[in-house]
Amino acid sequence: MSNGLQQRIIGALVLGALGLIILPIVFDFADPLKIDRESKLPPAPEIAPVEVAVAQRPQEAAKLGDVDSLFNIAKSKPIVDSSEGFYGLSENDLPRAWVLQAGSFEAQDKAEGLMQKLRASGFKAFVKSAVVDGSTFYRVYVGPKADKRRAIAEKAKIDSNFATDAIVLQYVP
User: Fold this and answer.
1) Contacts of 61 (CB under 8 A, 6+ apart)
2) SS3 of 91, please?
3) How far is residue 159 CA from its own chain's centroid?
4) pTM here?
5) 137-158 pLDDT, tens per residue?
6) How far apart are CA 101 and CA 155, in angstroms?
7) Of the candidates 134, 153, 135, which has an alpha carbon nearest to the alpha carbon of residue 143?
8) Domain extents in the chain
9) Hey, what CATH topology would domain 61-170 get?
10) Would you say 167 and 100 are in contact if contact means Cβ atoms under 8 Å apart?
11) 31 Cα distance to chain centroid
């Protein structure tokens, strides 16, 4: 055999061996759809059904009245007693809510103007009308807040920014 032919055969064998080593590393020839049929799964557990009692409305709920009365601004009153809790539930088991009365006007446009100024400053303000001694007043409120301390903190901001003397009120059902 000639020397050139011998080198070609050895080169072909070396390239074939390298191909056998490198091709399985580069390409995964495993069947991706192959299902593992050798795993042993335990049997499904036997679970007894649980019966859940149907929720019933408490009898005391009828005494509490309508939820809308919680946010009745006409029945709100100023807070003067500091012994009341800052947050939580009232004696009727309703959540305490606090609102600031920023102003009271006979002219609706003045009340709307203050409301727009408060909203522009980032406060959640609204106007509610109330009849006092036969006259209609338009009250500007900010809130409601679930925490009295937050309402008092907003009162200080509103009083300094808008030159008012806001009143902290509690919603009374």
Assistant:
1) none
2) coil
3) 30
4) 0.48
5) 898 888 788 778 888 888 888 8
6) 9
7) 153
8) 61-170
9) Alpha-Beta Plaits (3.30.70)
10) yes
11) 48
